[in-house]
Write a structure and sequence with these properties.
Blueprint lengths: L3 H18 L3 H21 L2 H35 L1 H35 L6 H30 L4 E4 L4 E4 L2 H5 L2 H31 L4 H36 L1 H7 L12 E8 L4 E8 L3 H6 L9 H27 L4 H10 L3 H10 L10 H10 L4 H30 L7 H9 L2 H16 L4 E3 L3 E2 H4 L5 H32 L3 H6 L12 E2 L2 E2 L6
Antiparallel strand pairs: 1-2, 3-4, 5-6, 7-8
Helix pairs in contact: 1-3, 1-19, 2-3, 2-5, 2-7, 3-4, 3-8, 3-19, 4-5, 5-7, 7-8, 7-16, 7-17, 8-9, 8-15, 9-15, 11-12, 11-13, 11-14, 13-14, 15-17
Length: 536
């Protein structure tokens, strides 16, 4: 049996690297399409100011993109180094979307980002705009395939366990790709990135307006970010509701933990606005409730019951009992894959195999035939994630989402009235809003991943079985090394961002640069020398 400390350190290491990496991802997703929008306006109107905007914000995008790649590459290697049993158990399914992400999306965005950066004087307007859109498409396709892989962990669709090979095998690629959890999570995460980029751009633009620098670029950037942001924030809140509805069916334990619902209450159930959950006693020490709100919020009906933690724990105990024969059958099949009785026993209980694995952790010598009622009760308790953490990470995410919506509503009003430069109180608030979407994204990630516990693949493979058998010393050393390295990356990002923000757009350079490259047969090129177009 793998040491519990090794499992916990492996979890902490992956969580640390993922949380660091996820600081870069949302901004990359959102900035790519904001750059495309700015350049689209430049191409359609010919106004030089939008070219300067695309140049300047493109520099900040490139810094974030480069460091995002540096922090993301190691995560895929961690599956093999720290989660070897997981990689072996579900590699046939999990590896497919990750391979497509690398071969298609990542190579696509990495190739075209070079053309986007160095192609201003070498490509025509239309060609460069197409390249910018391909970078944005590649970035978002990368997120799609990664979230398809994560969606399988959250709700395993399109796969089945083979008792002969002792592995999960892909049965339907379409089910894997179009898993409701994966698709809802992709849209929700991508649009959260657009919100992040909008606040980032608006906050820096407000900084320039406060100091009277780059006024025209700042005002236009702020206006575009405000419109982009208000639509994206409304969408991310709406789609967050859809993701919660999908999650309620796929992971009822996550839902119960998010809402600190210990008892199954008659519909329509009350909503806990705030509470202090106590998992040991399975009660809330105090709570502030709104009657009748939870049921329509989660089920979109007034009559469907939402199961509480205690009911779900009782259901888990029954599934553990039903899964134990499946684990016993696997032991026989590992020695003789053709044993007909063992195959029949496994087939009868295979839907609860994962719950049988939960019992294995607490059984003497990991022999589930020796499982007692106490063993089963411990395994059933394990099926409920940490309620306190889930409750508050979810509420922080929602609170920050509502705060950002209010911010963007005001930003749009002031921008459309064209008096944002006179609202100095609001401009002072805007830069302080920049960390808010990053924190909200991190809270959302924690809610999704902690809520899946105790599983790496929900209902199929427990976390305690998934880790590699490293020593505690090795894991502690590597965890410390990753935290130090990634902290250096964050420091580099902050230094470069602050440096280029203080410097601001290089207006003299961008104004004197040619609008686009010579095009043979075009009326603006003579003997290969391009005549710059005047600003409209």
């Amino acid at each position: 049996m793998i040491n519990d400390t090794v499992v916990e350190l492996s979890r902490w290491q992956f969580a640390a690297t993922a949380l660091y990496h996820f600081l870069f991802v949302p901004l990359t997703l959102g900035m790519s399409f904001m750059l495309a929008a700015m350049e689209t306006v430049y191409v359609t109107t010919g106004k030089q100011i939008y070219r300067e905007m695309a140049h300047f914000w493109g520099k900040l995008f490139l810094i974030n993109f480069a460091l995002g790649v540096a922090t993301g590459l190691t995560m895929e290697f961690e599956f093999g180094t720290n989660w070897s049993f997981y990689s072996s158990f579900v590699g046939d399914i999990f590896g497919a979307p990750l391979a497509i992400e690398g071969l298609m999306a990542f190579f696509m965005e990495s190739t075209f980002i070079g053309l986007m950066v160095f192609g201003w004087k070498r490509l025509s307007k239309g060609q460069h705009l197409l390249v910018t859109y391909l970078v944005a498409l590649g970035s978002n396709l990368s997120a799609l395939w990664i979230l398809v892989a994560n969606g399988f962990m959250q709700d395993p669709q399109g796969a089945a366990f083979n008792p002969v090979t002792m592995r999960m095998e892909l049965t339907n690629f379409a089910d894997l790709i179009f898993s409701p959890d994966a698709q809802a999570k992709f849209v929700h995460t991508s649009i959260a990135g657009y919100v992040t980029a909008a606040i980032f751009v608006s906050g820096i633009s407000a900084f320039y307006m406060l100091r009277g620098r780059h006024k025209e670029l700042a005002r236009r950037s702020f206006r575009m970010a405000s419109l982009f942001g208000v639509l994206a924030t409304a969408a991310v809140i709406t789609l967050g509701d859809a993701l919660g509805f999908v999650g309620a069916n796929a992971q009822p334990t996550k839902l119960a933990a998010m809402e600190a619902m210990w008892e199954t209450e008659p519909a329509p159930a009350p909503f806990n606005v705030a509470a202090w959950p106590d998992q040991e006693s399975q009660t809330n020490k105090w709570s502030i409730q709104i009657p009748y709100v939870l049921t329509p919020l989660l089920t979109h009906t007034m009559s469907q019951e939402v199961p509480g933690v205690k009911e779900l724990e009782a259901q888990a105990a029954e599934r553990v009992r039903n899964g134990i024969p499946a684990v016993e059958a696997l032991k026989v099949l590992s020695a003789d894959p053709t044993d007909a009785n063992a195959l029949a026993q496994f087939s009868a209980h295979k839907k609860d195999l994962g719950y049988g694995f939960l019992a294995k952790r607490y059984s003497p010598d990991q022999d589930v035939s020796k499982a007692t009622n106490e063993t089963i009760a411990k395994a059933a308790k394990d099926s409920i994630p940490n309620v306190f953490t889930m409750f508050w990470t979810f509420r922080l995410m929602v609170a920050f989402g509502l705060l950002m919506l209010a911010y963007f509503v005001l930003a749009v009003i002031f921008s459309l009235r064209r008096d944002i430069h006179r609202q100095r109180w609001f401009l002072r608030i805007a830069p302080w809003m920049i960390p808010v979407p990053f924190i909200a994204c991190e809270m959302g990630w924690l809610t999704a991943e902690i809520g899946r516990q105790p599983w790496t693949v929900y209902g199929v493979l427990p976390t305690w079985m998934s880790a590699s058998s490293h020593s505690v010393g090795y894991m502690a050393f590597s965890l410390a090394g990753f935290v130090l390295l990634y902290s250096i990356f964050i420091a580099i990002e902050m230094y470069l961002m602050v440096k280029f923000i203080r410097k601001g757009p290089d207006e003299s350079e961008s104004s004197s640069a040619p609008d686009y490259a010579p095009v043979s047969g075009g009326g603006v090129a003579t003997a290969g020398v391009m005549m710059p177009r005047k600003e409209n």
